[in-house]
Amino acid sequence: MGMSVLTSDENLPEPGALTPAAAAVQDVATASATPRRPRARALLRRPTFVISAVIVLWWILAAVLWKVVGLDPYSNTGKLLAAPSWSQPFGTDNLGRSVFARTLVGADRALLIGPLGAVMATILGGALGVIAGYFRGIVDTALMRVFDVLVVLPPIIFLIVLVTAFGSGTRALILCIGFVYAPGIARIIRAAVLAEMGKGYVASARLQRESRLRIMALELVPNVWPTMLVQITLSLASAILMTATLSFLGLGAQPPSADWGLQINANMIYLQQQWWTVLFPALAVASLVVSVQLIADNIKEVSRP
Amino acid sequence: MTGATHRSGPVVSVRDLRIGYRTGHGTLQAVKGVSFAVQAGEAYGLVGESGSGKSTAAMALTRYLAPNAELSAGDLSVAGVDVRSLEGRRLRHFRAESLGVVYQEPGLALNPTMAVGEQVAEVFRLAGAGRSEAAQRAHAALERVQLTPAAVIAGRYPHELSGGQQQRVVIAMALAGSPDLLILDEPTTGLDGRVETEIMALIDRLRAELGFATILISHNLPLIAAHCRRIGVLQDGVMVEEGPSERVLRSPRHAYTRSLIAALPDIDARRSRPASGADDTARPVVTVSGVSKDYHRKRALRDVSFTIGRGEVLGIVGESGSGKTTLGRVLAGLTTYDGQVTFDQGGRPGRRRLPQVQVVFQNADLSLNPRRTVRQVLKRSIRLLDGDQTVEQLADSVGIEHELLDRLPGQLSGGQKQRVAIARAFAGNVPLVICDEPTSALDVSIQARIIDLLVELQQRTGVSYLFISHDMAVVRQISHRIGVLYDGELVELKQSDELFESAEHPYSRQLVESALSLRRGWPRGDARAEEPGQVIA
Amino acid sequence: MTTLNPRPGAAAPGRGFGALAERHGRVLRLLGRRLVQIPVVLLVVSALTFWLIQVVPGDPGRATLGQYATDEQVRIWDEQNGLTGSLLSRYLHWLHGFVTGDWGTSFVFGQPNRELILDRLLNSALLGALAFVLLVPISVVLGSVQGYREGRRTDRSITIAAMSLSAVPAFVVGVILLLVFAVWLHLVPVQASALATGNIGQRLHAMIIPAVTLVVYYLAVVTRMVRTGVTGAITAQHHRTAVLKGLEPASIVRRHVLRNALIPTLSLLGIYLGALLSGEAVVEQLFNYPGLGALLVTAAEHKDVVLLCDGVVVTGVVALLALLLADIALIVSDPRIRFDNASS
Predict the structure, then answer these.
(1) Which of A120, A256, B359, B512 is deepest in the core (most CB within 10 A)?
(2) C242 with A28: CB under 8 angstroms?
(3) pTM of the full predicted structure?
(4) C 148-177 residues with CB below 8 A of A?
């Protein structure tokens, strides 16, 4: 909720005038523009990107390797609600489970449902957006009207309905996330495609009787790709957040899962005395979502023309 | 009103003006030691191509420069005020009282969410007038620029006015503070020829009445020559030539000025020879009959009929909104329409599925996919249009150097991009090429070369053109016949020379008039040259 | 000066009162279209929700009446609650009830759904309104500062800070705020549940932390939008016109920058106003606040389908009304919409 709207300013018409500085430089510099810098290198030069990437990598490693390393998120260590110490860096919860282990293991679920949901949303939304933008007319109108209806409800309410209907199994959650985010992505991609459609190169390709599929795949998609990439990353952040939110609301993962949202939900009652049971999973989900979000922002910054 | 009364020296004095922009890669010098002076009530012109620094030099007088600009000058004063030292309140007072600016795009220069009367009244409010007094004076100001009934116009928002009306509002606003100097920054560039004539006449008349000086900045040499007493020619931030318009035009001393003059489309000359297959009109390439088109219940084209012969260049002129671009889109099959457009399939047996039309668009920036190299674009075009040349041959034929082939459009100049777009249209043997203002976005010197290229290609390949433009001079140069579109109707269609000599429809006559009026004082052929310095009403 | 008649249609302004009537005609048509859209959208939303929720396996009748009820009793209960028959007939039964004001009874709470929902909606709206009232000025100020400092360190810092804060899940922000202000500093109560009862001052006091949590959540988006608007307005050519007129900076900001800059933000604010007023499930759940969002979560947990469906439709109504409000605000502030002519 809200997340995917972050880039909605891309829907706005471009401000017609450059800043005086940019216009001046453009006025002086000739058209021999410098070749585009490789985007990857530009990204690596941005500190917020590097830090975020390291954090995301850390959680990916945790998700993949926790079994290998032998973390045990389920068994009782013998001490209930113990404060953080050398042996239990994050303390233990009401069932004596290691909060450290549970926090690391929680990455597993967050990084399974979120990314797959985001990929589904992007494929679905991207395809619908390109189709709507390319064909316009009835196809476009019909799709947009349907999306209008879908975006009326706040996303969380929409998700609650979907989860009530389809359950909160992993596969169902991925589908639900995909459905919830696809319309927003479709709208933004459609807007980007419409902007491209107005340009002469698409008309030229059509005039040369280029096939529709090639126009969409070779002319349009590469040009809306930066927008798409940003959308993928943004919806990834949202999807991770939503998964945790559903668990927090008690509508997602069920005990004894190490899901971060579920941990926070289950331990809220201990917040006043045993804050560590809540704080560490909270920091975990926050760090992951914020990092993905910042990665999206950085991609957007460097892919600006 | 204030104007010329209070001083004997020049209104504007600029000596050794230098302006640079700090960038990541050092300082870019935009203006490199420019000096000029403008007398009270004088009409001065600065001419040059984009990037010549003409706007930067003039805007320095307002002290409105980008934050990264560095300015130095031996002298920079307006109405006796040293502009360099102004800050804060004094700068605001100076801007409010000593100068007015008229901008290139009036539609963008006005605040879209404020009624225009209010925007004019703001200036009077600033000068201390009460609300109702300011409103009254704003009405008077609007009347002075012939916007009547002023009370009605004052209540309108900018988007409800036409381009010409918007520019009148901007002029009223600029003159509201009774300035000594009016800076005109390409004031008519986006406007139609007819409106341009009216706006320039208005400014000339007001200058005579009120006595302010003007600096007219333009890339349009004929316009400057017709409306300025003296002109300065800028190239790359250097003033290469300055003098009375008459003298600069008749005997330019600097090579750059000469090249600018040479590059101008000559309204009396034509480059295209008679159509090679002009006698083949019995079998036109395309027959358009009774075509109409509506956009949102608004008429764009009404019952337009004509033919284009094989090897013929048909020029279409009209102002923006006249439907000329729509006509191009109809012929290209890019939009739906009522009526009939029939292409002659003869002479091309068995190739019915190949496209009949290609288009060269106005904006080469947008007409090339930024992510495909020149080679990729041309290769695919040859394939799709079933051409028999190689990429290199095609590049040669439009003057694209081979080392540009592996570049992306972003790495090409405007003229190079347009050449690629033209090459794309000529990748196969397509009988009709629609040129939709193909040179409007380019500098004059490049314009001429692109027109040359189009003429040469047309003569070599014998294609037909539908050449759409708002510029009568350009159209006349290249076209065999010219059609005049007015409000979606084809009001006149004649041989080019015939149209210029005996236009029948009042609108066509106006177009021809406006085009010719710019050549007043023009060295070649026109006997009606004005005395230097005389104000042209 | 020779003039031809202005081209008909092309920005040809009408004259006098006729034009005014035409202008208002456009506005009315626009609003009329919205008002027609609202019931249609609600119908679709409710049908979709109803259909989706009815897919749920489970037996609410049995669940309510308990294992000792006879099958006959369960059947009668189902009938009373519109749970028998085909999907369509059940929907129509529900729709009829909803329209006539009979929203059924919640088996979870044992209360009439209508009372329950409207009570909770009022609570949610109070919290949402407080958050909204805080959100707008904060984001306008931040966004304006960013717009005026575009590309500088201040700009980038605010973007990153606001975005990072907004990306933190609301329940985490809430937890941290609670830890700091309630658990460690004892400035506010830990549980906000008392706030449905206390006097106005006590309520506001207790609502501050939940409201701030909501503000943090929406801050980045709205600030970003304001920033985009301000950057657009101050790089617009008409801003240069205003500066070169010699106007005072304050009057430029007020009359020429903010007015134009905030127009694009209005629609966004409309969407968020709807979401805020109809209840933010996460925050309500976290602070144990008796709002509509939390009610719907409970309904979903217990598969109280009728309650859920009623609640979802009410949420939709609130969202659509907020959008309508945004439209009206847009019409009032943007003359280009008021007197729209599809310029080509």
Answers:
(1) B359
(2) no
(3) 0.79
(4) 150, 159-160, 163-164, 166-172, 175-176
